Amino acid sequence: MGGKTTIMPGWLVLIAILWVPFFGGCSTAYYGAMEKVGIHKRDILVDRVEDARDAQSEAQEQFKSALEQFGAVIKIENTDLKKAYDKLNAEYEDSEKAAKKVSKRIDKVESVADALFEEWEEELNLYKSADLRRSSKQKLQSTKSRYREMLASMHRAEKSMTPVLRTFRDNVLFLKHNLNAQAIGSLRSEFSTLKGEIDGLIKYMNEAIQTSNKFIADIKQ
């Protein structure tokens, strides 16, 4: 692991990126092509952690927006119930998309991390120097430990979205099936539950974003 990074011409990087669709689900071929243009698994891992972090930040904002819209709808007397349903349903669908994006980005982080650590383990056997091998092994163990901490935080944030989406979906469906004033009254009693769940989600998201930033800073050293 390590060594001087070779800066490749931009056109070679572009070719590697254009090759990606042809590899389909073959991660090994993809990583091999990227390494040919000087982009290694460590670089890809950093990029994917950044992508997952950004997706979590976007999801945070989306769930906040959903809560604000929910709160606005239930506060308005004599609201247009059809419009209220359309607004809340759109927020629910956007929240669901944001949650799926977070999960997809986390899966991509795990995929490249597994490949990186497997390669690192195998390359330990290539060392002739016992001291260098020991140092590299310690670095591997330290990196794995920080990675596991970050991944656990990501998964906590990911799981915290599930109850929010369930509560939100239940309320949207209830409004859809009961387009009357009593339905809005029922939703008001649900607001505190939804708010508590979203507050918890935001807390876990913040923790995951912080651990991601720390991991990125550490691995770039």
CATH architecture of the largest domain: Up-down Bundle
Fraction in beta strands? under 5%
N-C termini distance: 13 Å
Overall SS class: mainly alpha
Contiguous uncertain segments of 5+ residues: 1-25
In percent, how helical is the residue content? over 70%
Average pLDDT over all residues = 86
Total domain units: 2
Please summarize the sheet with the most strands.
none
The number of helical segments is 6
Order of helices and strands: HHHHHH
- Annotation, overall tally of beta strands: 0
Describe what you observe in this structure:
There is one protein chain. The chain has 221 residues and is mostly helical. The protein folds into two domains: 1-39, no CATH class; 41-220, Four Helix Bundle (Hemerythrin (Met), subunit A) (Up-down Bundle), CATH 1.20.120. Helix content is 86%, strand content 0%. Helix 1 runs antiparallel to helix 2 (27-36), helix 3 (41-75) runs antiparallel to helix 4 and helix 3 (41-75) runs antiparallel to helix 6 (181-220).
Helix and strand arrangement:
Layout: H1 10-23, H2 27-36, H3 41-75, H4 81-123, H5 130-177, H6 181-220
